[in-house]
Specification:
The protein is mostly helical and 285 residues long. Helix content is 78%, strand content 0%.
Length: 285
Amino acid sequence: MLPRRPALVGLIRVVHPFPSVLDSVAAATIALTAGAPADVAFRLGLGMLCLQFAIGAANDYSDAASDSLTVRSKPIPDGLLSRETAARVALAAAVLGLLAAATVGVGVVVVGVVGLADGLVYDLRLKGTLFVWMPFAAGVGILPVYAWLGARGSVPGSFVGVVAVAIMAGAALALANAYGDLEEDRLSDTATLATLLGPGGTLLADACLLAIVQVVALATSWPTVREPFLLLAEGSGCCLGWLGLGLAVAGIRARALVWEVQAVGIVVLGVGWLAVLSSAGVVRG
């Protein structure tokens, strides 16, 4: 028997489907770019999806009290499921994610555990502090390592640069995400970089980081690109990143779209960039 509709809706919402699916698609696509067979890319994507489900459910579990005051639309304060159910979902998803990663290799499990721990630190410890952006940024840096290691069995030394740029992109997304939650965080007296910098300062910092990421990606692509369509993909990702920022002028109701559109743009840019570096032999492993 299927769960009652409100419970099913709550289960879907508590795992934060948008960022979870986006990270899963990114992991699978990077793995394919690295030369992984389709079944390996699928298992990597599935593992990432479940691990992100776990992090999302743990987030709502941790924020249940504050959400009841400021974000009544979240599934727990909305009465769609209990805090205990969110905890069980987080645990089950974490186990499934690590099992899926284990079918690819021990190293992938280790990276998956690191990524899961990073997400839980974000959820349970650093959220509501000025340091919340750090695990957010680190999580974006971990993702390509997880996918590349699963596809190739090793990560080259040259991947350090890729991880550094990914972390910077993650910091930009952290600012965009904090901008989206700015009003709720102010109401609940939650300290974030966005509440410290204000809306204008947050968007300016986000724009600077986004510009640096894009300049580095494009500058290292032009000399080595072999397939022009990959530059088109990178350009499309850049445009989406700026479109996300442009939505900030649309008002408070559009604030959540700022980081969501920007996140899609960064994934498109990142996959295109990695494809260029891989085809040119800049990254090996």
